[in-house]
């Protein structure tokens, strides 16, 4: 594993020819330009070191900053402002002022702007993919893959914008008609996680903008640069001032989050993240009975029956478990394998995992990157220690690399049912294998969880495929596949995994349904 310096200087912004700027402003611009160049993007002006409020790039009022590091090298990438309550209120005010005009634009107008935004994301694919890798650590192929996924939400919701149909309901009352229309809900607070620095924003913002809503985005402090680059591209696409606002925060996260949930001007809150934080935000949003959509934690079962195609199941387990180094809410967390194929499956999976190449995701050939920070590695280690103490065996990996954010991709076999990993998601590169005997037993085990986001299973028995798909208590099932993510699907969970659905028909979550009863129409009968 090598960690070369990632700071490749590329051509800087042209700051010399700015006669209208003061010497101080010019120096600041020069500094930002040099810092931006260090990211090695073809278009360094996508890198922003300020928050974005009412169409302006701004610093925190108190000058505080968040240091953003590359998890692969632990080097500082740059800083963004650590904003607080007052900037959040300003952003909400701006979104509220922008709402009347934006909500009255035609759906076709919003469709066109979103498609332009989508094209810009494609045009800057290499840069945006690189940026995701720099701040999140996932390998470049995955960073670019995320950009494609992220952009697809803009394309999808551009197409949804023009299809927010209402309905006509025949009235039982003479001389009267019932019409239902859909209207944008208002200002939306968007709170997103670091595991998908870009896609979790567009999945929410794309739907909100398409519906005619305006937004205030709180990106995660670990990965704010992708969010800010999106704001820049949105501006280039023609999104008006105030429609998108980005408020990075770290120290003031509690008061910023509270304001985003409680402010009366905000009409909807949407969040992706952990279940404990989801519960806090849900409670705050309840104070004004705001509409919420929440995608919270998962603990996905991945079941391999003895009639499965084992090759395909192993391939799928590799992707499903180790995507983003295991840091997605829909990653397989508990792998249950039927006893007669258990040993075969375990050795094939261990062989694949042993061949992973971990390191800086910008380097050629790297298949898996670091965890977001060393704290994340502590939970993985805790789950391993617990399972091993209860009798599990380490087939591959099993430890963190000291003084880095890397954790060796791990396969554990013979994990007992009462191990911690079977109760809570690891969010790390740890495949935990348990043996089972019968369908009934494994469905019970799979459903023995307070959360239910995704679940996967492999079987070639068509009756079993239907039975198990229907019986799993999750919002999304992968039957003979470990890859379910797409813009077009209703993404979301049951139980404590969340509320509402994103993607698919998720534009509905950003609209109010209004009934208009027309009477006295002068029609008799
Ligand atoms: C998540 O981990 O929250 C999202 C995963 C996805 O959209 O694929």
TrEMBL record:
Task: Answer yes or no on keyword Acyltransferase.
Answer: no
Name-wise, this protein is Succinate-semialdehyde dehydrogenase
Reaction(s) this enzyme catalyzes, per UniProt: succinate semialdehyde + NAD(+) + H2O = succinate + NADH + 2 H(+); succinate semialdehyde + NADP(+) + H2O = succinate + NADPH + 2 H(+)
What Enzyme Commission number(s) apply to this enzyme? 1.2.1.16
One Pfam annotation reads Aldedh
Q: Name one GO molecular function term.
A: succinate-semialdehyde dehydrogenase (NAD+) activity
User: What InterPro entries does the database record attribute to this sequence?
Assistant: Ald_DH/histidinol_DH, Ald_DH_C, Ald_DH_CS_GLU, Ald_DH_N, Aldehyde_DH_dom, Aldehyde_DH_Superfamily, Succ_semiAld_DH
Q: In which pathway does it act?
A: Amino-acid degradation; 4-aminobutanoate degradation
Q: Which UniProt keywords apply?
A: Oxidoreductase
Q: Which domain of life is it from?
A: Eukaryota
